[in-house]
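Box 3.1 A note on notation
Throughout this textbook, protein chains are presented in two layers. The first layer is the amino acid sequence; the second is a C-alpha cell string describing backbone geometry. Keep the layers aligned when reading.
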Amino acid sequence: MNPRSANKPASPPTNLRQLEFGDNSLLPALFGSHNSHLAQIEQKLEVVLNSRGNAVSVAGTPEAQDAVETVLGGLYARLKKGDAIEAADVDGALRLAISGGNSGAQISAEEFAVKTRKRQITPRSPQQAAYLQAIDQNDLVFGLGPAGTGKTYLAVAKAVEGLLKGEIDRLILSRPAVEAGEQLGFLPGDMREKIDPYLRPLYDALHDMLPANQVAKKMENGEIEIAPLAFMRGRTLADAFVILDEAQNTTAVQMKMFLTRLGNNARMVITGDLSQVDLPSGVRSGLRDAVEILEKVKGVSFVHFSEADVVRHKLVARIVRAYATQDDGGSRYSKARSDGD
C-alpha cells in the first residue's frame, strides 16, 4: 500500500532502500492506522514509502532515506520495549531526525528519555533535548518560551525521575498566585481551595507520571510539595528538585528571594513566557530581570523555546506565531505588555 499524499507530485523512484522489521505484530502500531504514520513521514521528508509484509521501501534522496531509517528504527525500538506510539511521537522523531540531518549529527530521543512510573517521556524537538541535557548538567536552568513547548512538563518529569532514583529527597513545585483577571477573594473555600486552581497544571503533570495513590502518599509524607511562591520565603531548599512555573509573573524581589533559596545538593528549574506577563501595569517582571542579570553567571543555563518547539495541537504553533508577528509590528497588545515588564 502506498500512503503517499494525493496532492504531492510523484517522484521517480530512482533510489530505493529496503527497511525490514522482524516482529510483524508490531507493524500495525509502527505504520499507524491506514498507514497514517507512514503518510506523516512521507509528507515531512518528501519521500515515497511502500509497505509490503514486514518491509518498507523508501524512495528519495540518500539523506531523506537516512532520516526515514532513523525515525522508523527509533519508533520500532520503542514498540519492542512495550511503549505506545502515537502521531505526536512520530512528529517528535521527525523533528529530531531533520535537525540531525541539518547539523550532520543524528539526535536520538532515547538518549534523553525520562523514565517515570507511568510512562517514558522523550523529547519531541531538538530544543527539548537540549533542555533535558541542560537540566542534567546545571544546578539552575531557565526554560523560556511560549505555551505548549513542554517547559514545565519536562522539568516535572526530570524531577519525578530524580525522586524515584533517590537522587533527591524532595520535589518542590511552586507558582506565583498572580491574578489574571480573576479575584482570589471571590473564589469559594478556604485559602488552599482558593490557591489550588493556580497550581492545577502542576498536579496534572504529576498525575501523568505517577499513580494517583503514590502522588497522594508522597504529598502526605512531604516528598512532594506544591505551594505558592509566597510560601518559599525564609526557607533553604536542600536535597531537592525545585521548579518555579509561570515565573514571568514574579516581581524582581520575589525572584531574588526564590533564587537565593537554593541549598546544597539541590537543582532548580525556572520556567516562563515573557510574552504573557500578568503583573500590574508598570511592574517589571522578575524573570526579565533574572535573564539580564544572570546571563553570564557560570552554572546557570538558559534554554529558549520558540513556536517551532510547540508540541500541542499544530494550530497552537500558528497562533503563537501570529501573536509574535503582531507584537513585532508594534500593536497595542505589544505596547500594553511591554509597559508591564
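Confidence is low (pLDDT under 50) at residues 1-6, 179-187, 329-341. The CA atoms of residues 239 and 265 lie 5 Å apart.
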